[in-house]
Each structure stands twice: as structure tokens, then as C-alpha cells.
Amino acid sequence: MTDSNLDRPAAQKPFRRLLLTGAAGNLGKQLRGALAAWADVVRVTDIAPLGDVAAHEEASIVDLADEAAVHALLEGVDAVVHLGGISVEAPFEDLLDANIRGLYNLYSAAQKQGVKRIVYASSNHAVGFHPTTSVVDIDAPLRPDSLYGVTKCFGESLSRYYFDRFGLETVCLRIGSSFEQPKNPRMLVTYLSFRDFIELVRCSLFTNRVGHAIVYGVSDNRTKWVDNTRAAFLGFHPQDSSIEFEHLFPVTAPTAELDDPTQHFQGGPFVLAGPMEPKR
Amino acid sequence: MTDSNLDRPAAQKPFRRLLLTGAAGNLGKQLRGALAAWADVVRVTDIAPLGDVAAHEEASIVDLADEAAVHALLEGVDAVVHLGGISVEAPFEDLLDANIRGLYNLYSAAQKQGVKRIVYASSNHAVGFHPTTSVVDIDAPLRPDSLYGVTKCFGESLSRYYFDRFGLETVCLRIGSSFEQPKNPRMLVTYLSFRDFIELVRCSLFTNRVGHAIVYGVSDNRTKWVDNTRAAFLGFHPQDSSIEFEHLFPVTAPTAELDDPTQHFQGGPFVLAGPMEPKR
Amino acid sequence: MTDSNLDRPAAQKPFRRLLLTGAAGNLGKQLRGALAAWADVVRVTDIAPLGDVAAHEEASIVDLADEAAVHALLEGVDAVVHLGGISVEAPFEDLLDANIRGLYNLYSAAQKQGVKRIVYASSNHAVGFHPTTSVVDIDAPLRPDSLYGVTKCFGESLSRYYFDRFGLETVCLRIGSSFEQPKNPRMLVTYLSFRDFIELVRCSLFTNRVGHAIVYGVSDNRTKWVDNTRAAFLGFHPQDSSIEFEHLFPVTAPTAELDDPTQHFQGGPFVLAGPMEPKR
Amino acid sequence: MTDSNLDRPAAQKPFRRLLLTGAAGNLGKQLRGALAAWADVVRVTDIAPLGDVAAHEEASIVDLADEAAVHALLEGVDAVVHLGGISVEAPFEDLLDANIRGLYNLYSAAQKQGVKRIVYASSNHAVGFHPTTSVVDIDAPLRPDSLYGVTKCFGESLSRYYFDRFGLETVCLRIGSSFEQPKNPRMLVTYLSFRDFIELVRCSLFTNRVGHAIVYGVSDNRTKWVDNTRAAFLGFHPQDSSIEFEHLFPVTAPTAELDDPTQHFQGGPFVLAGPMEPKR
Amino acid sequence: MTDSNLDRPAAQKPFRRLLLTGAAGNLGKQLRGALAAWADVVRVTDIAPLGDVAAHEEASIVDLADEAAVHALLEGVDAVVHLGGISVEAPFEDLLDANIRGLYNLYSAAQKQGVKRIVYASSNHAVGFHPTTSVVDIDAPLRPDSLYGVTKCFGESLSRYYFDRFGLETVCLRIGSSFEQPKNPRMLVTYLSFRDFIELVRCSLFTNRVGHAIVYGVSDNRTKWVDNTRAAFLGFHPQDSSIEFEHLFPVTAPTAELDDPTQHFQGGPFVLAGPMEPKR
Amino acid sequence: MTDSNLDRPAAQKPFRRLLLTGAAGNLGKQLRGALAAWADVVRVTDIAPLGDVAAHEEASIVDLADEAAVHALLEGVDAVVHLGGISVEAPFEDLLDANIRGLYNLYSAAQKQGVKRIVYASSNHAVGFHPTTSVVDIDAPLRPDSLYGVTKCFGESLSRYYFDRFGLETVCLRIGSSFEQPKNPRMLVTYLSFRDFIELVRCSLFTNRVGHAIVYGVSDNRTKWVDNTRAAFLGFHPQDSSIEFEHLFPVTAPTAELDDPTQHFQGGPFVLAGPMEPKR
């Protein structure tokens, strides 16, 4: 970014160039269109095919573990929405490449290229071993529920370092369950509508200063396991709620399986998912 | 409970058998009807007459201080809503029988009968000696405002023990003032509508895991002395408010009686009510 | 106040006599009319002209630094809304007279005259050196952003002393930006509508007991830097929001001026405003 | 106490009359002699024989469940050290008489007789279900590990009420394991030497103001599960340590019984001791 | 300070020039000699006579309310130990000149002259309305017990502002009772030996970074009302204790005067000392 | 571990087999001898030569990044002291192999082999971006000061996961500066004597239950940046202090370099050390 925003004509959009990683994924597809309104150029990337490329878009297939490619990817970028990497439990070597090495490459390149801010898809699985009988705020101790969750903790620590060391800002989104609709009773609690997800990214990109922030990505559901009070400086107000989906899951008495750990911890099935054996 | 919920036909209700104590009391009458939707069988009990008994109900007059009767009462019960006992200041020996011995009998029997959960009518009088110029959350130190309040603290401790020791779950409802409408200005703050009370019990019965929980039972009144943020995992959202009753109490300047303790503490008149002399 | 409120006919208003200082100022003008409904007599004062005086009003021009005049001013007053003094950064000697000596005179006189409560216009500038990436509650450490802010901290300490020593109650209103509408993007966060300001004063005057309270005066804006949870006993619920004014400020990317302290701290431009040289 | 301390000759001891309950018990025997230095008259009581009665002593056998006897016992008493009642797990009815009804009788009588302060033998078993991998301070939530522990919670609540209601001060001593020497490895952590116990009572009696205080009674042992920082106003500094007894217990690797709850919780064997069946 | 410390010969002392205000006062006299070891030049000032002036000293009589004189006083100074001003309750106008206007002059001049650090004699009277049954840490809310205490709160706020605004560091010493020996039982708790006082100043001057720090100045007395845990970065370890003076005050039972506020609050007699009438 | 400790003759040592990684390093050399007293067999490993192997030792050169070798290394091991890996800032790929992949291999193997506990050499650099004007306790938020520090955060998260998921206990030692003596003024604060280091490991191995614990490894130095109060259940009491080394560093005024970040943050020079370029 060699010339300042101020030199550009007023008709231009707020950001000159935004980078979206993981653009071919579940949430990437949702967000991709919204970014058009916020940036003159939207650079989209994934390791999977990216489909049609719009006039305002730059598309490239990049493996985040490829250091040189990532450095090229970050050139000329104002800010990043980083949805790339693996978002479920996986063998450690896969997570190492995608979520650890890949993330380091992203931050290293971003710092060198003068990127100002990264919106980072962390996860509620960074704190999934907190019990379902508690409410965690943004200062709660890390309690990853899976190796995947451990890599999200890594991302939060790495981004904290880049902020404290270089002033590179990050908002860590501890995203719950963002799908068309909740798939099971637990997701009534962790549901984040696509619309609320996009609003959360918008707040994260446009709030004047964010420092190194952590915020839970959940809609205004009836039951809450998280508390965003201390992230209120981001101005995120979910508009949706899982209440409209409650009818999908018949009312039942508390399950008889009192010892089932997937019921005891906020992470749900993730707490039993790992570690996974490598695929050979 | 010898067979599991899963063995029952889908047409059955969530609970097989719920026990409601204090069913003839002010709140018991409100709740009794609602339970019909939640359980195949509703067992109702009180020391006072129980009125007409519906087809889905089992009714019995039981003194909670009668250990053997209480053990019989808990047989075959899935969960309990315990509204029984004394709910105002009273001579200590009366409180001892109803709220201490009676409660021990209830928990002892429930544990032996394999009951899974008890919804326990605690009271805001367990913390009534907190000043009206403070807001207490669910972790606030106990400050009972009466011997009655002390017995509610006992109940919270006893139920905590049964959870830590045996896994028997309890939700302690620190109920405010649940009447048709507020009877004085203080109740504008502590008012809990009957509808919100029933919803609070519903949340307490159907939340998948509750552990040993504490929650304040107040409607969405304008002035708040309590903060349920950390009980948000119960999903309780009051629908009513005392705002509609504010017109009943004319606006006045703060009372001239600056030393009146009933104005200084959340417990109101309870702080001066006890200890009471025994009735002889 | 030699006779009690109870001796007065029911037709009278809640307060017999309220004193409003700073009545000719920005907020004083807004509030002056509202007080008519709350008190039989409204005594208004300022160092600037007070305009037309209504039938229920007593008006006088008083310099708060004039000890004798202030003592006369407080005679027969039930409660005070103190908006007087300087509300922006100014040379220290000016602040000393208006906000320190003047405030002492007010409290000294109020205590001697038996005034029961003072609603004190403190300011968010008492905590303006907290970063914009944080949310401060009412217990947050003082971080004044200007000499003006330091004098507001003085006012909070002085009023605390008068409460602990004499029981004279105060509500410290940490008022944000109360204008017709926000004048810049920062004020979208700190905006307090006139209507909400008046409601905040109403709550502060009519809540039965307030002790020594602190509360933030902001409307229900989208972005929040403050948290009034522990002041909920005051019953303040803002009805307005700056959302309706967001269109006034075009959406932009975060400013390029990453080192600009007016963007980093809640106090905004105040953090660079002082200390000011005396006017000579 | 009809005449003031100031009326007495200087040669007299600090207290005119102290009452020691449980005087025939393990700790009562230790303390009884020390009290001679602190009070002109030491009234000792127990349900067990009290042995030789010294010239400065008044001895009486009293069942604390006997209301009239307890009221007589408290006449003319300045302060009480209450070690009476049951100090181990026991059938509920026994605990009810000794630790609940008995304690109520004591406080009811003390309040009526104008007693100024009670030093109450609470117990670490009021918080014994906190894990051994934590350190609890005096504000930690109650976690009784036994019905006995529940009765100690009752005592802390009851005494809080009498302080808030009547100003009757209490120091709750959460006594660990006070024996000649630790009897097992756990007691290396909970050990309170007799000398330190007596010093703790001395601090509790002579500190000018105590309000309603809670303090852990442990010596300066190497491993600590408790933190008295916020009770430092009592001036208690243990002089002894269990270090001298560590040689009694051979160094071992952590036990293989990883699921043994008596190793997981501070209460040790108490967590499995109850509830006990009544003796019939 | 135009040349850096590094340019000076190694034989010189750590500081080139230290300023000591209040040098003729109780504590100033104690400290004055010690400063000789720490600075090439010690500038001493007071409004009272300063006695003999040593070779390494510069002495001047300055009224802190005299702005021009204070600016001259700060020229060429590396760091300040500010003991000047009034250290007891006094009429407000006197406090205003000495502790408010005087302190502003000091900070204003220090900032302009490039002073790096001020060690500021605050007082435990800034928090003296905390009860004697509590322990306050350095983050405890301000609770001044006198107008004098209010001016100390002012000093803590003003110095915080100068640190946040200009990076001028301050250590606020909340000094207890620093005399040859305790003069009453309360001072057994608040006693600070002269030796410990000097050590506290030494730590405050030589710790590499202090930012804006608060620390309680008390010796290692038996009873503690304050907790310096979070000020441990200053490295202050008192060597003395009031234990050696306990024999001066005979052991007594808690005073009968249960309503005496000087016994209830840490500030002792200060809580009743003010406000004082002006001397005329 | 197929047979229990209880089956072994009393003459045997507490542990049957301990594994020490990093045995050829600075701290490994110190600890290696001490382990002889605690285990029948001490298995030592490093990537560097291990010198003479004692009769009770098993030695092997293993690269922790070699999964199969690590699994073999953990066979038959009761507990591990893990000092291996890189302990300074290094290029990311080196840290990735040694501190991330290597650590995962260690935990994965330990879990499969039934190891009960790991003592993990974390570092104060996991929190090195906390300012030197603060005191951090064991719950302080992670603030890594280097990529090295980020990998230590990873280790704390990974070990937390293995405890929550499998019950494998870990004590994370946030070791300061453990050398023969402090090498610079900062190390006067962070110094951990070799003797205290060994004692810290001893406590970590022999405390009956540790769960997932964090503790700072510093001696009893004069200045403290860390607070182990909540780790007191480990029983660690340092015997040494850097006070004896203070004479090595001449007393100086605070450095003139007020903007030097290595002076502002606890991590010292680490805060500027990274990220390092890879060695090629």
C-alpha cells in the first residue's frame, strides 16, 4: 500500500483491496458477495475451485502452507478476512500445515506487506471444554476441545504476538455453528446465522480501532454459553435467533446419558473427536 | 425409573412423572396446570387440601418432615419442582421442620430413588441484606435477611452437596415477589409475573444440563437489583415487566426516613421481621 | 427542610424545591422545563443570563466560587442537579475556581442546609484515557484525559466523602456527548440524546436510595465503550440510539493514522486538549 | 454486661467473662487454659464431663439443643468461643440437634444477652468439595463435602444474619486438622498446631473490630489450599508448620488411584463419609 | 537535562539532581540525608526553615502555590520526591493552595522541565473510609476519609493524567503512620518505620520502570489492612514491624463503643476531623 | 506401567521410570543427577551427546520430531520432565519441528503409553508482553513476546487439551532465567537458582494431584513480576534470591531510553528478537 486512502477519489469504496481466504468454503461463499460493497477489489483464494470470478475480484488458488505464494497473495492488501484452513478435527499433520504453518505464513506476509488488520476465524472450540453449565466471557481461560481447537488457540496467541510486536490488528471470531439452520439441539445454542456472520465481519472490518480483540460469533439465541459484554466496542448486534428453529427438535427431558461428555461440554461432539489418526 | 425414556412411545410427554410440592400454595396453583403438558403423570403434594385431582395427577397430603412419607412420595419420580415449605419469616422451630428437616428428607429420598433433578424454590431473601444500591450476580456472597433466608441458604448448600456428591442436579430459583401484581414500590423491582415464573421452571426442567445452578426469578422490570448474566445457559428470558404497574404507586421523592433499614436492603421488610417468637 | 414531605397536601409535586445549577447551559436548558413536573419550586442558577423566569421558578445569578452566595443558594433545597461549572478543557485556574472550589462550596453548603441528594454532572472524561478497544464498567479505575477530567475525578472523590461522612447522596453522571446529534464518528459511541439525559436525571432523583452511585450517560448506541450493569439499581433505560445518525458519517476503512491518540482513547480529542495556558 | 469495662480496676483482665463451649473436646482442652489469661471468669461447658474446675472457672453441663439452658448459659457473658457441637460426619438428626438447633439457641441467647462477639468453629469442610488443585480464598463459594459441612455452612449463614441484623460479631474459623501431629499425608496440608489454634482464637477475640469474618485455620505448611490474604485484618500469623512432620510419610509417587475422590477434593475422606444412616 | 546520564563520569552518583519538597517536615528530615547517596546534587525546599545546607545541597524556600517559583525550582531536576503540602486535615482553602494548586504547579513545571519521575506522598487517607474489617489492595476504590484525603485522591488522578498524557512517571506512596513509634493502637496497623520509609522511596526512585504506580507504605506489622501484592514490581520489602511496640498498648477487649466510627474505618480519627472551618 | 507401584518392594524409589528430555541442555544437566533419588530408572534423552551414562540411566539420542522414535521413548515411563526443544527465539520452521510437532509427538505417545504426568518447561516468555509495571498471576492472559513464546502458549494449550480429554496431568513451569547467576539487571527479577529449579520440579512430580497447573519458576527475588498465590497447592517455596547478586549491577537511575521496549515489557530482549529469518 504505497499511496494513502486519502489520495483516492471519493467515489471509491472504503477498502481498496480486501483478501478473503477460504473463499470456496461454507462461510466464504456467504461472505464473498458482501465484500463487493466494501472494497474496490476483492481478492479471493482457496485450495478448492473458486467458481466464477466477478469483475471486481482477483482469484487465485493458493496453499497457505506455501510461504512464497502466501507472500505474493498479500501484496497490496489492506485487510484480510481469514476463513482458510481446516475447520474440523483432523490428523495433526494436516492441521499443522493448514492451521499452524499456514497461519504463520499469513501473518508473516501480512506484516511484511503492511496489512493493517486481519479478521481471523477462530472458533468456540478454543474454549469447548468449558462446561455447558457455565457462561464464558472473552477473558475466559482457553480450554480447547480438540487438536483443531488447539490450533485455534495457537492462532489467537500468534495474532496477539503480531499485535503486541508490530501493531497488526486482529479480531478473533470465535464462531459457533454457522449453517442454514441448526442441525441438532446443541446448535440451538451455538447457531450463527449467515446474516449475523456477515454483520460480525463488517463490524470487525470497520470499527476504527480493534487492537487484538476476541468476540463470540453467535446469534441472539435463547440459551447462551458466551458473553460478549467486554467486546461491545465492536458494535456487534445479532439480528437473528435460533428460536425459529426450536420446533425442529422436539422437547425432551434431559438425556438419560448423564455421563456423556458431549453433553457436558460446550464443544459437544468435538470433545471426543480427536486426536485423529493420520490418513495414510 | 427402571426403563429409559427412549423405550416409551413417541406420543408420550417429555417427563414420565414430575413431583410438585407445595402444590396448594400461591405459586403451586399457578404451576400445577402447566405441568400437565410436560409429564405423563404429575404427582402433587402439600400439607393443605389439593382440590380437584385431574386424570393425569396423583395427589397426596404429605408433611415433608415425615421421612418415611417423603421417601414414598419420591418413588418413580423423574424430577421435582419443590415449592413446599414455609416461604415467609416464621418461628425457628417451624422453619426447622419445614425447610431444614423437610428439605433433607426430600434430597435424601430423591437421591435414593434416582431422581435426576430438583427445581428448588430458594429466594431473594438468601441475599436480602445486600443494599438496594447494589446489583448482585449469582456469585454474590450469601446475605440472608431473616431466619427464613438462612434456611434458604441451607437449601442451597445442601443441594450443592448432593450435586457434588451424587450428581443430583438442582436449579435454585431465587424467586422475588410473584403475585398477581406488585403490592408496594419495592415489588416493582422484585416482581416476577406468574407467566415468567412458569417459564423459569420450564427452562430449569428442560435445559439439558444444569449442574447446580442459581438464577434470580424476576421479570424484566425497569430497576434491577440482580444480574443473571452467568445463568444465561438456562435460557430464561422474562416476557413481562412491572412497568405496567408503576402507575399504581405515585411518584414520590425518596423517603425522608433515611435510616429505615427496610429501604436500605434488598430484602425490604424481611430484614426486620425476625427472629420471631415461637407460637405457644 | 424543617417540615416533612408527609405534611404537604397530596396535590403537591414530589419535591418541594429543586436546585438546578448551570441552568443556562446546553443541558441546563434541556432539563429546566422537565423539572417543573417534579418540584413545586425550581430554583435555577447560572453565571450567564437565565432568560424568562416561570411562575414556579426562582432564578439567581451566582458564581459557584462565591462561598456565601452558594450557601444562600442552597437554603430550603431538597435536592440539586448540578450541571454548573466548566465542561470542557480550560486553563487550570479557571477549572480550579469553577470545578474545584465551586464544587466544594456546593457540597459544604448542601451538607449544612440538609440537602438530601445531589445529581452531579461528572463526565466520561474522568475515564477518557481508557482505550477505545475496551469496555469500562462503573468500577473501572479513573483515567482522566484532561485537566477537566481530573476535576471530574475530584468531584467524584469529594462527593464520595460527603456520602461516607454525612450520608449526603450523590449520583455521578458520566455524561457522554449530549447534543442535538452526533458531530463526528466518535460521538456515535458517546451520544446521549436529550430525552435520555432527562430520563437519567429522573432516575437519579427518584430512585429511593442511591448512596454514592456512578452511571454512564449514553444512549443505546450500537457501539459501546461503557457498561452500566452494576448501576442497574437506578433503573435507567435509554430509549434513543445514535443509529439514526450513522448515515451522517460515511462508512470508511479504519483511519490510516494509526498513531493518532485521539483515535486510541475513549476521550477522543480531549486527550490532546490540555493542559491549556491561562488566558492573560 | 450492665457496667462498662472502663469501670473496672486496671488489674482486671481484658474480658470479664468468656464462655467456652465444647470445653471437653480435643480443641476445647487445648484452649481452656489459655483463656485464664484473657478473662476474669471463664465459663466452660460441654455435654461431656469437664474435669477439675479452676478458681476462675464456672462449669456446667449443657445440651445446646436445650433452649432454656442455653439462654441461662449466656447470661453475663462478654464473648463466646463456640467449639461445641459435632465435628465429624454424623446422622442428620444428630447434626440437626447439635449444629443447627444448638447453634440457633446459642445465637438467639447471645443476642438477647448482649454478647458482643462469637468465635465460631466452622470448618474447612464447608469448602471441602473444592479440588486439591486449587487455592480457595475467604470469598470462595461454599462447597460442603458432607452433611457436617452443610451444617457449618448453615452456621456461617446464621452468624452473618445476626451480624447484619443485630451487629453481633462473629469470626468463623475454618479449622483444618488440629491434632498433636498430622495423621496422614493430607493433614500435612491442613495441619493446624495447637499453638497456632490458640493464637488464632486470640486474634479473633482481641482484634478491635471483626464484623463477620471468615479465616482459615492452618499452620504455615508447605503446601497450601487456602489463602488468608483478605483476612489479614485479623493479624493471624501461624508460627508452626507441618514441615517437621513430613518425615512421617514416605515420599511416594502420586497415587495410582487416579479416580479416588478422596484425593481429588480438599475435604479428603469426608467427601465419601456421608450421608450416614441414623443410629437406631 | 540536556546531556544524557551516559556522558557523565562513572564516579558520579545515579541521579544528577534530585528535588526534595517538604524537606523541613517530619519525613523530609528523615529522607534528606539518604538522598546524598543517590544524587550529585540534592535540591531541598520547604516553606519552613531548612537548617544547615550541606555541600551537595541546594536549598530554597518556596511556596508551592507560587507558580513561577515552582517552575524555577524544577529546572535541571531529574526526579522529585514530593513530600510538600499539608499532611493533616485543614480548612479547604489551605488544602486548595498547598495540595491542589501546589501540586498542579509541580506537575506542570516538571513536565515542562523534562523531569522523568515524581515520588508522590499520597496517603492511606485516600482510602480511609474502607472498614477496618477489610483488606484493600492497590486497585481498591478511592474512599477518602477527609478533605485532606480528597486532595490526595486529586493528586493520584492528576499524576495519572500526566503519565497517560506525557509519560511522566509517578509512584504514589499511600503512607501510613510514619513516626518514631506508634502513638496509639491503630498505628500498630498503619506504622511505617523511618527505615522502611526510606527504603520505599529508594525502590520508587530506582526501579527501572514504574509507570503510574500505587503502593502502600506500611511496615511488616502483624495486622494488615492493605495488600501490596500487585505492587511487587517495585521490590519493596519492609524490614521493620510494629510488633516491638505492641507492649506499649495494653491488651484490651474490643472497645465497648461499638458505634464509634473512628474504630470502624481505616482512617481512624480522620473520619471525624473534617471539614474544618477556615481560620480567620 | 502394567503393575502398580504397590506391588514393588519398599526399598524401591518413588517412581519406577522417569523420562528426562533435553538432558544435555543447561537445565537438563542440573536436573539429571537429582532424578536418581526419585526413580529406579532415569531415561535421559536429547539430540546432543549425553555424556557418561550412569547405572540407573537409560540414554538415547532422539529427535522429538521423529514420531516413531518418540513413541518408543515413552514406553514404560511413569512421568516425564520435558526440557527438550528450543528455548530461545529461532526461525519458525525450527520452532515448528522442535516445539510444536515435537511436543505433539510427546503428548500423543505419552497418552498412548499411559504416562501419568508431564512436567513441561514452559516459559515466562508466554507472558513476556505484560509490562514490567505489572504483576501477573497464573490466570493472566497469554501475551507471548516472541515466536518462541507463541510455541510455549501452544504447549500450554495442547497439554490442557490432553488433561481435559484424557486426564494426563501437566505442570507448566514458566521458567524465568535459570543460570549460575543473573547476567543483567532484568535477570535480578527473573532469576531462578538451579536449586530452586530442582525443588520446583520435585514439587511438580510429587504433589499428589496437579491437574493442569501453571506456576512461575522464579526464586525469592526482591522485585517480583509474577504471583504464584493460586499455585500454592504445589508447595513450591524458593530458597534462593537474586539479592546476593545485586552488587554485580551498579545502582543506576532509570535508563534514559524511555521508549526502549526491552525495558517496558517483562520479556526484555525477547520482545525484539523475532521473528527470525530462516537459516539457509
Describe this structure in words.
Six copies of one chain form a homohexamer. The first copy, chain A, is α/β, with parallel strands linked by helices and 280 residues long. Chain A contains eight helices and nine strands. A seven-stranded parallel β-sheet of chain A has the order 3-2-1-4-5-7-8, with helices on both faces. The longest helix of chain A has 22 residues. The first copy, chain A, starts with 14 loop residues before the first strand and ends in a 7-residue tail after the last helix. Chains D and E meet through loops of D and loops of E.
Oligomeric description of these chains: homohexamer
Secondary-structure content class of chain A: alpha/beta
Q: Based on Cα principal axes, name the global outline of chain A.
A: globular
Our measurement of the CA-to-CA distance between the termini of chain A, rounded to an integer number of angstroms, reads 43 Å
Helices of chain A, by number, come to 8
User: From N to C, what is the helix and strand string of chain A?
Assistant: EHEEHEHEEHEHHEEHH
Radius of gyration of chain A: 19 Å
Got a strand count of chain A? 9
| Overall mean pLDDT of chain A | 94
Spatial sequence of strands, sheet with the most strands of chain A: 3-2-1-4-5-7-8
**Biggest chain pair interface:** C-E, 29 and 29 residues
Low-pLDDT residue intervals, each spanning 5 or more residues of chain A? 1-7
Give the amount of beta strand of chain A, in percent.
15-25%
Query: What is the share of helical residues of chain A?
Result: 25-40%
The biggest sheet of chain A, with number of strands, parallel, antiparallel or mixed sense and barrel status, is:
7 strands, parallel
